[in-house]
Design goal:
Keywords: Membrane, Transmembrane, Transmembrane helix. The protein has one domain. 71% of the residues lie in helices and 0% in strands. The protein is built from nine helices and no strands. The chain is globular, with a radius of gyration of 19 Å.
Length: 276
């Protein structure tokens, strides 16, 4: 019997707690997505880029991604909605992976909605605390994904691919949020100079992807999406630094190189892991 099939057939019978989890995760996910859509300005209201005095706009810091980068949220939200639906399907109530991930995924969605609310209130340092907590929760989910295999292809898409994109994007968003908060407090580039500071942060983003790729090398279904999402964010940092009022050739080049590295790292690690 394969590991994947064992993950399906070894499940204990569903309990009342399993049924409650399924329903709460679905309803909570719908509420969290709706709150995020309203709070971000996607369904009306003030866009995040205009909140907190524009501290998170595309021109706020040298590591702020261009505005089109945020369209990735549509894909991430679609994946999270898919997860909420899949975990409710027959046979998933007592699935070991769904048991291990359900509450954590819902928690990540609620934290994302809270982050938007905190930014709209103008509490930048609060937004840093929330996004770091969100990143930590996603790392916990990553560890659980690595430890517990998915039993079905649909489950792999709903968990690995969705969380991979989510984690990759939030990793870059965390860097941008910290930079924006420091800039708003006039701490700025920590004495490194704007260009060097931006290049250092871009490299840090790529290094995060490398670390994730090595740790989760047994799950390319999650590491490759991490690299794609992080590479997407870094690429839009590069684009934003070649146009508009805050151009910076050094950061543009660094972000371009690190975007390629972020996309390539999971693929290289996966190929290197294959038996020869």
């Amino acid at each position: 019997m394969s590991t994947e099939n064992a993950a399906i057939t070894s499940s204990a019978p569903p309990t009342a707690a399993d049924r409650v989890r399924q329903v709460v995760v679905l309803l909570g996910s719908l509420l969290a997505i709706a709150a995020a859509a309203v709070g971000s300005g996607a369904a009306g209201g003030q866009p995040v880029s205009e909140a907190a005095g524009g501290a998170l706009s595309a021109e706020a810091t040298v590591v702020a991604p261009g505005s089109p980068a945020f369209s990735i949220w549509s894909v991430i939200y679609a994946g999270l909605l898919l997860f909420a639906i899949v975990q409710l399907l027959p046979g998933r109530a007592a699935d070991p992976r769904m048991r291990a991930l359900g509450w954590w995924v819902l928690g990540s969605m609620l934290l994302n909605a809270v982050w938007i609310g905190v930014v709209q209130a103008g509490w930048l340092w609060g937004s840093v605390l929330v996004i770091v907590a969100l990143l930590a929760v996603l790392c916990v989910i990553l560890v659980r994904i690595v430890r517990i295999p998915a039993g079905r292809p649909l489950d792999t898409v709903a968990t690995d691919v969705t969380i991979g994109l989510y984690l990759g994007w939030v990793s870059i968003a965390t860097i941008a949020d910290v930079a924006a908060t420091l800039a708003a407090d006039e701490v700025g580039e920590l004495g490194l100079g704007e260009s060097v500071w931006g290049a250092v942060l871009a490299v840090a983003g790529a290094l995060v992807v490398v670390a994730i790729s090595v740790f989760a090398r047994s799950r390319p279904t999650v590491t490759i999406p991490v690299g794609l999402a992080a590479g997407w964010g870094l690429a839009w940092i590069a684009v934003a630094r070649t146009q508009g009022p805050l151009t910076d050739v050094v950061v543009a080049v660094a972000a371009t190189i690190t975007a390629v590295a972020a996309v390539a790292a999971p693929i290289v690690v996966t190929l290197a892991r294959r038996p020869r």
